[in-house]
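[recover] target loaded
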């Protein structure tokens, strides 16, 4: 009996951890166990060691732009049976820098710098049986729905469903303004985010921006009185919920589809175009922000060249970028980037329709750290909140609200 008991206990103790992704934003590709052994730090002590090759899941091949390579940045998986085990993970094809883990699927923390022992590698002894591991702190579809519900209770917000995704999820737009304000020439600002589904920092950033706009600071009150904000926080809800990296579940990268006919793009892009057409029937937007996150470790505006727009438009984009720099240490002049405007992008579509009337620009937050400095500040919900405050101060200055 004794020997059987020992064998049975050993089998339990040596059970393989299990992987799954059956939850909001869950995603992983093929997982291969590379090794399992026991490590004996002292003669009377032992610890089980498991090593895995964890491949992120590729987005489907793009059926519209067949020359575009799919992405496989995002991963968010759950492991069970890991308590007190030393887990080694190699995660290829992705620029993993101190990703996040959680023991409850709600509260996520970054892996320590000492947990990353080699490029694309992690190792940690987990203290609970279940752990969630994600490229970045996830911003789930459920979080989006809960925040919409919360924001909708504000007297300054009206939430509309502007259409339905391919899989019939609502695409929501907030109209945020002080409806009692008698300000004569209200500015109009459009903001959208989460075209690229892995870009959770952009979603946390946008959430902070809306939360601050609904607060009672003098800045928030002034902006509400003088600006109408139209905000689509989650343009690609199917892709977010399904844990895709940069596409819809059908593989379409919405970011580069703005010059495509309706027959060659997805409902989500058609919804945005239709909404913008409708909202601009009475006049153009003053500013349109396309919120993204990038793997390169700095904040940036993609300022379009004068050659691809106009000298005046180039200067106005430089001005918004420079004003943002004055309000945050996280964004420096050398982080600013220049790009060529093209009709396939949202900004190109806006330029073709509204020319110099609308400053349409992409703003990027990093996933990892700011200022290209791993010894400096790392991206967190707290720092994204500070950055959102800087964006609002910059808008205030840009509109010369004093
Ligand atoms: Zn993006």
């Amino acid at each position: 009996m004794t020997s059987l008991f020992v064998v049975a206990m050993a089998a339990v103790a040596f059970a393989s951890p299990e992987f799954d992704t059956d939850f909001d934003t869950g995603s992983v590709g093929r997982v291969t166990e590379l090794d399992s052994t026991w490590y004996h730090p002292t003669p009377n002590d032992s610890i089980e060691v498991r090593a895995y090759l964890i491949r992120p899941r590729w987005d489907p091949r793009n059926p519209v732009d067949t020359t575009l390579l799919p992405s496989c940045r995002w991963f968010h998986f759950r492991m069970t049976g890991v308590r007190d085990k030393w887990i080694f993970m190699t995660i290829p094809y992705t620029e993993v820098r101190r990703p996040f883990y959680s023991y409850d699927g709600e509260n996520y923390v970054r892996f320590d710098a000492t947990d990353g022992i080699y490029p694309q590698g992690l190792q940690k002894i987990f203290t609970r049986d279940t752990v969630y591991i994600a490229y970045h702190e996830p911003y789930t579809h459920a979080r989006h729905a809960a925040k919409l519900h919360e924001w909708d209770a504000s007297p300054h917000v009206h939430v509309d469903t502007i259409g339905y995704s391919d899989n019939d999820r609502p695409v929501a737009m907030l109209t945020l303004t002080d409806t009692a304000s008698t300000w004569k020439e209200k500015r109009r600002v459009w903001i959208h985010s989460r075209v690229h589904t892995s870009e959770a920092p952009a979603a946390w950033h946008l959430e902070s921006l809306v939360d601050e706009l609904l607060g009672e600071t003098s800045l928030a009150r002034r902006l509400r009185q003088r600006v109408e904000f139209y905000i689509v926080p989650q343009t690609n809800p199917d892709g977010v919920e399904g844990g895709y990296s940069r596409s819809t579940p059908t593989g379409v990268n919405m970011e580069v589809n703005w010059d495509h006919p309706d027959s060659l793009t997805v409902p989500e892009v058609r919804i945005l175009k239709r909404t913008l057409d409708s909202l601009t029937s009475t006049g153009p937007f003053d500013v349109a922000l396309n919120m993204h996150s990038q793997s390169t470790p700095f904040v940036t505006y993609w300022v379009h060249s004068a050659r691809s727009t106009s000298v005046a438009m180039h200067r106005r984009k430089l001005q918004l970028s420079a004003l943002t720099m004055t309000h945050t240490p996280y964004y420096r002049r050398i982080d600013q980037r220049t790009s060529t405007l093209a009709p396939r992008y949202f900004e190109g579509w806006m330029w073709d329709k509204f020319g110099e009337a609308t400053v349409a620009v992409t703003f990027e937050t990093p996933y990892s750290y700011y200022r290209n400095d791993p010894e400096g500040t790392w991206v967190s919900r707290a720092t994204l909140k500070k950055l959102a405050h800087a964006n609002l101060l910059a808008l205030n200055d840009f509109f010369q609200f004093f």
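[recover] notes: The longest strand covers residues 31-39.
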